[in-house]
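Task: encode each sequence below as structure tokens.

Item 1
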Amino acid sequence: MENGIYYEFISIPCNKGRRLEYSMPLGILWGTTPLFKIYKGTGLFKLLERDEVENLLLYSPKDPIDYFLSIRHDPKLENKGPCKPPKDFTLYIICKPSIKEIREDSKIYECRNIEIFKGDPEPYSRAYGCLVEMLVVITKMKAGVLDQRYSSYLDFLRWCIERSAPRSEKMRAVLNYVMQSFRDLEYSA
């Protein structure tokens, strides 16, 4: 992995070698000591605040639809079990989160005591990258960090997904579900 690049993972907190029943997408800024930001109001922020997290399991799934399952807190990802990926992976990391900086709306953590486990890497398509970015934006909107002005950016990301996966019914179905989540968010504002 290259320094200075964000890598998207699904984060699952662990305690005493067992997964806790929570998951969410998490961007890690890779470097000598990887960093990540957690916004107030997220479940992981609350778990870290209560000091319930011994380690974080960060995994890059073979099926990027798992990012969507993690944002929905799907039981397929969150059943308790050993601190190992719940599904097939291309890479997973176990690290100990350590606070580096406290901000008004978030905390920056360092990933310490890193263990890296490699699986069978597959190419990561532009469509999946755009889907992950779309989910990140919607999550930030739900957390109140971004406002509705980002809807034109979501339109661009939708175009990116449609253009990059023109024959994928599975991707189209997920995109429709995600866009409905965004429309629900617009109406609730």
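Item 2
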Amino acid sequence: MKSMEKHEAIVYRVTDDTYLTETLFNREYRMLGSAAIWQSVLSYRKEYQVAFKPLQTLNKFDFFYTGTDAILKKINIFENFLRHYIECFDYQGGKKLEKVIHAGLLPCLAGINELESCEMSTLTLKAVLNHTYRNNETFHEPVLHYHSFLLEQYHRDDSSLPNDDFLGEALSALEGTEELTSFYRLKDFSPNLSKVWKVQTNPDYAYCPYERIESSVNSLWDALTTNLNIPITIRTLATLFYLDWIQPFDEYNSSIAVLAAKRVLAGELGPGAYLIPLEAFLVELHKPEFDFLLKEVRRSGDLTYLLDAFMVKMRSCFADFENIEKTIEKEIREDERAELYHQDEVKVEDEPVEEISEEIPEVQEEVSLSEKSEVEEAPTISVKVEAKKEPSKTTILSSPQLAQENENSVLSSFAPSKMSEKEAKEYAQYLLETDPNLSRKQANFLATHLIPGRFYTIQQFKRFARCSYETARTSMDKLAASGYYTKSQIKNKFIYTPVVKGK
């Protein structure tokens, strides 16, 4: 290492091993002459300082990072670790790919849920991922919009750097509008605080004064464009920290900061970078115990202070993911065995006419009363769960029509695979928590019988719930009336097709 003989061992330890702030240094190393030692620390760091121009703090100090040999080695190892993690989303296939994507997305959505105060439970977040979310709460919208936009970016595979157009696209998506009526903030969150900053020598800015937003954001874009030689980890951290700090918009600043940082990361590492849980790290930074660290970066411009905390948090998230991935592999094997059982079950469902014939009187009765009975409660294919359910008549389909309806359902949805046993139990619990009208048997049936493109019968519910035919018929009609199924008739029996929820 360069100039090793210049400094005491402690100087290298508090820089290369763990990059301490002056406050932490004084707390951990209470000794005589600590002020002089800290000056040696700063002197050593200065030798390896790399500016991230033209990006500056709001007090006009250059942002930079300290690139000692030891720190660069740690960054290189960590970036190889990131690439390995991203490969999990690039080289899988079939059912496993969908499940690992969901596993990668869950901490991302959990982070946004906390950052935007959306108050979603873990079961609700999993319902969003499985495209079975049914709450329709307004305060959940930031997570729902973020999820859709994140998937869109993941599938788009755009390697360009973020810019104003990208921020506008992200803001529009999060607001749920096609056309923005405003862009950057036109006022400060606290005008009185802004007045105080103007008379202070080196104020501790909590955010960027609105009149400096455009120039500040432009300096970030310039820094990203002209410093491609700087490690991608540092560029990502700079984007995440800076946009979250200056808060250029009236709302959704944390979400947009994460999206822009992921765009930077994806430009070099590929679209799988959108599934790296940067959200979890930002949640960590927002905790009170990290206030001192954020203030130090704002004051000094030294981005290296973020590095250790970032790598520790990401490694923790990746360890959690690896455990989940092992569980996924186990569940896939169980799913394959269940699928074989399902194929046998389908053969049983294709009952000969003479076995169905004893149902015909009941079916005929249902048809004859379709104008007045509970059959009338079943919604048509156009029903949306979030709207008030309007009763309609049972649709009578021929086999070709039915096949076409099912094909359209699959094409118009982001159809999830059949749930694992664990996912089904979680979804059944979610349904019970969000729909008080459901019985446990109905919720358990829905959890495993809501696959788009398939259809289900009264007999299936009867066998599943071990109940009478009349109870099964009533239950299925209530589920249709509640918007879970569309009820139709083919030949001499009724079928129930899951209502497509879309993305």
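Check on item 2: Residues 348-394, 396-417 have pLDDT under 50 and may be disordered. The radius of gyration is 29 Å.
End of task.
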